[in-house]
User: What shape does this take?
Amino acid sequence: MQNKPCVAVGISGGIDSAMTAYLLKESGFRVIGITMQTWDKNKAMEKVIKSGCFGPAQEESIQSAARLCQKMGIEHYVIPLQEEFQQKVINYFCQTYLRGKTPNPCLVCNAYIKFALLPEKAHSLGLEFDYFATGHYAKVDYNEELQRYQIKKAKDTNKDQSYFLAFLTQEQLARTLFPLGNYTKPEIKKMAADIGFGELVSRQESQDFLQSSDLAVLFKAEDFQEGEIVDLSGKVIGTHKGIINYTIGQRRNLGVKGFHEPRFVLEIDAEKNRIVIGTKEYLFKNRCLATNMNWVSISAPAKQFRAKAKIRFLHTPADCIVNPINDSEIEVLFTEPQLSITPGQGLVLYTDDLLLGGGFIALSNDKNAEHNV
Assistant: This one.
């Protein structure tokens, strides 16, 4: 029994990770459950405000994970990662907002915590396993010709989560399993109900990063500096309450009135501590740069190529031309202008169902709608 390959499954307490453990156990693996503990009890946050992965309700998720593992007859371990999560994810989250950009903490968490420090720390605590698995809806294959692991979209295109895996390394992919990639969400729900885990089917899933709707719980009081709200000509038309409260494309809670057409956040100027607003037409851009590129399924390209790009998770991949600047920077030219290309968000490239790589949006502009502020 002990000679079977062992898989450590990241158990969150929800249906997807539970069914991941079940499928791997049924296929002959020896399975253990590991749950990362990231919430710092010394932080002040109301309990429970909304579904999210970071907040005081994490304790309930850990207890749920333990019960699920007990029900499946597998060992369960809690891996403390509060300090590492603060350094790698929370600090990144806050610093990105303070630079006038909009972060995506899931991309960073997966690359540096969930698929890196979580299994590494589990090993350091004496746990022995051959593979690590999660409940992500995605696929990983090995291309013999390229001698490279590749990430592909899941069978369920409506649930596909490959976008969040764009910063994984070859070393991480070599030891990672995604059993749910070949299933649809309805199939997983039916499976859970059929094997006696019906309570998971209706359970609310975590959709957000923070369990609070108020970002202020992560920032210092001095991070909320008031500043000017200006229009495209530079005219001051209002006062904002701190740039961390705004993101590109935002319409609500701008604190400005008297316009015939809705106004949106077009630009966040951290250096001058001001917000630029205007009408929706100026949110459409046909070009952006991406930095910190991680080429997952292919080597860093040297020549121009065509692909489809997602500029945020819920964005429909758009046709584009990719111009490599160097191994870690690209220029992306979209066939059609895209709405609210947001600096700080992840840009992920695909051809068909193959994830090529991902980076962070650095800036965007549309040569047909340039403005100087």
